[in-house]
Specification:
- By secondary structure, the chain is α/β, with parallel strands linked by helices.
- The chain has three domains: 73 residues, Nucleic acid-binding proteins (OB fold (Dihydrolipoamide Acetyltransferase, E2P)), CATH 2.40.50; 162 residues, Rossmann fold (3-Layer(aba) Sandwich); 59 residues, Orthogonal Bundle (Ribonucleotide Reductase Protein R1, domain 1), CATH 1.10.40.
- 26% of the residues lie in helices and 24% in strands.
- The protein contains nine helices and 13 strands.
- The chain has a six-stranded mixed beta sheet with strand order 10-9-8-11-13-12, with helices on both faces.
- A hairpin with a 2-residue loop joins β1 and β2.
- α2 packs across α6.
- The protein is globular.
- It starts with 19 loop residues before the first strand and ends with a helix.
- It binds guanosine-5'-triphosphate, magnesium ion and zinc ion.
Length: 323
């Protein structure tokens, strides 16, 4: 069977100088599954590369060469058009690229559980930082009352971000058409969200097939059980590719100053009226943010979260330079 790589987002500028072109659909234990015109190849991501150069991630376009002893190897990772990255969860102050070459990020959240605004802001920042389109998908609408305040809270935080709502366990499922309308041949959509949010269920629904394994959530706190364990790209026969990811709860930011400013645009706009352009909005005179806070015109907790995130990025930058 001949695979048309345009279904996976191939563009003519991806011509490698050497070897066979492919796109990574899965990475595990030093090897990757790579889709090529001949089908999926199992490719060694050589250890030297993993240590010295950038490590391959799902969504990467690569060129593959065949070694008589080692089998298929990555020759080169083609330039990435973008990445979704977070701070590596280890102690080290380094970036962890989650996925590459993404057109649209879906932040997926289950309406059966609360969503602390601070967590949503972090998701929004890392999604925005990729420069891909960003949407929020709220699942399990069948589980909540029409009057739930959760949606209002989310709308207040996600200014200018399209919000879609689905209920996949109702008969018939609702909200899928609007999401399918976002999908096109060659367009890559990555799903992010905590465990149990319903990412894999949504992918199955969009594809119309039970491809991904899904899991129950705990009855008490609705936490998921980390059913999906690796990032994986799935082709939708009618067009588009979806990347499922394991659930993440907290996300450390990585070098996302600009995205922070976009997600907190309301406060950034206000800050232009502070007397000093480097105002920290703590105790400076003529601080527009402090004034609006005192008057109750803006959400004080949102300002606190903004300042904390700004400090987190600043601190990261300083430590990164030293190490
Ligand atoms: N009632 C209802 N349940 C849903 C909906 N979407 C997903 N679920 C349920 O939520 C649970 C978790 O779904 P998954 O798709 O496994 O969640 P996930 O985000 O992939 O979780 P991880 O793989 O652990 O990150 C499953 O029991 C699904 O059946 C929905 O729209 N309505
Ligand atoms: Mg899953
Ligand atoms: Zn100020």
């Amino acid at each position: 069977m001949k695979i048309d790589l345009r279904d996976y987002g191939y563009k003519p500028e991806f011509e490698p100088s050497l070897g066979e072109l492919g796109r990574i659909v899965r990475v595990d234990r030093g090897e990757c599954d790579v889709i090529t015109t001949k089908g999926v190849l199992r490719v060694l991501s050589d250890s030297q590369r993993a240590q010295n150069l950038l490590a391959p991630v799902v969504g990467d376009w690569i060129s593959i060469i065949e070694d008589p002893d080692l089998g298929f190897l990555i020759n080169e990772i083609l330039d990435r058009s973008n990445t979704v990255s977070r701070r590596d969860p280890s102690e080290q102050i380094i970036e962890q690229v989650l996925v590459a070459n993404i057109d649209h990020v879906f932040i997926v959240h289950g309406l059966d559980r609360p969503l602390p605004p601070g967590r949503l802001e972090r998701f929004l920042i890392i999604a925005r930082d990729s420069k891909a389109e960003v949407s929020i998908v709220l699942t399990k609408a069948d589980q909540i009352e029409e009057s739930s305040e959760l949606k209002t809270t989310i709308q207040a935080v996600a200014v200018d971000v399209p919000i879609f709502t689905v209920s996949l366990k109702s008969e018939p499922p609702e909200g899928l058409k609007a999401l399918r309308d976002l999908m096109r041949v060659g367009k890559t959509i990555a799903l992010l969200g905590e465990s149990g949010a319903g990412k894999s269920t949504l992918i199955n629904a969009l594809i119309g097939d039970e491809i991904m394994t899904t899991g129950e959530v705990r009855t008490g706190d609705k936490k998921g059980r980390h059913t999906t364990v690796s990032r994986e790209m799935i082709l939708r026969p009618e067009g588009g590719v979806l990347i499922d990811t394991p659930g993440v709860r907290s996300i450390g930011l990585w070098d996302a100053q600009e995205a922070l400013e976009r997600v907190f645009e309301d406060l950034e706009d206000l800050a232009t009226q502070c007397r000093f352009n480097d105002c920290m909005h703590s105790s400076e005179p003529d601080c527009a943010i402090s004034k609006a806070r005192e008057k109750g015109q803006i959400d004080s907790r949102r300002v606190e979260r903004y300042i904390a995130l700004r400090d987190e990025l600043e601190d990261q930058k300083n430590r990164e330079v030293k190490e």
